[in-house]
Amino acid sequence: MKLPVLFLCLLLATACAQNITVQVGGKPVGSATTLNFESGNGIIQSCHSDGGARVTCAPAYDSAIVANRDMLHGTQNYCSSATGSASYACSLSNGKLAAYNTGLTFVLVVDVPCNTTCSLNVDGFGPIPIKRSDGVTDPTGTLGAGQPEWVHYDGKVFRLMGGGAARGGGDDRDRDAMARRFIAAMETMPYARTVTLETTAGDVHKTTTSNAVGNATIHAATAGLPGQHMWIIIVNDQISAKVVSFGDNFKSAGPLTGSPGKSATLQFISDGTAWYEVARTTNL
Length: 284
Known about the structure:
Strand order of the largest sheet: 5-7-10-11-9-8-6
Number of helices: 3
Number of strands: 21
Shape: elongated
Order of helices and strands: HEEEEHEEEEEEEHEEEEEEEEEE
Strand content: 35-45%
Low-confidence stretches: 163-172
Distance between the termini: 124 Å
Helix content: under 10%
Structural class: mainly beta
């Protein structure tokens, strides 16, 4: 009886020592007596014994690395600044950026309007200038407090991609477009001895003279696009008549001499090389 028992034990030992061949995608990766589950980047392995006869393993994902649908459609792409200044700072929720990468897009909400220039620091990677959709022009009032705005990083600056204050309120303007009416965007220009008119800021530009400043010269930032129209409204203060001249990129009929308390409108059209004056109405 001892020999059969010994032979059975040897058979069991040999069977227990047999290797397990593991394949991935139908291709062998190895053969051994032990199969080890190791957690990978974003994947967590969890195993437990089912009473000694079986070991059960279940994979899971690390939500700090792999975002699920609810995260992506919740606040993953939402950034809110509460700095109280135009030096905005915020953090993207449910994680942290690895770096500023070209193509980064998210919704930004700020607590203070960007009246001139501003910057944004996301997740502590440093301040980046915010520009309009052209990537060059400063926001100058198109980014309002509490107005959700799509922001796109182009590798150098954050670009405002429209919405909120950038579209002058959005809904009414959209309805006007659907009704086949057109409302031109208007820029209010601060009055100074030298005024730079941002031709990409809208089709209507308005300024009000100041007695403390005196006469002024308006320069167009660019020569515009062929066929592009532009209107300028100049409101003269109540104190004295101001003379407003037209400089760079303008072909005008000459300086405009205002009247105290009166307004004037001028219309220009571009041929791609300069803005040509086509109409002027004074003493309005």
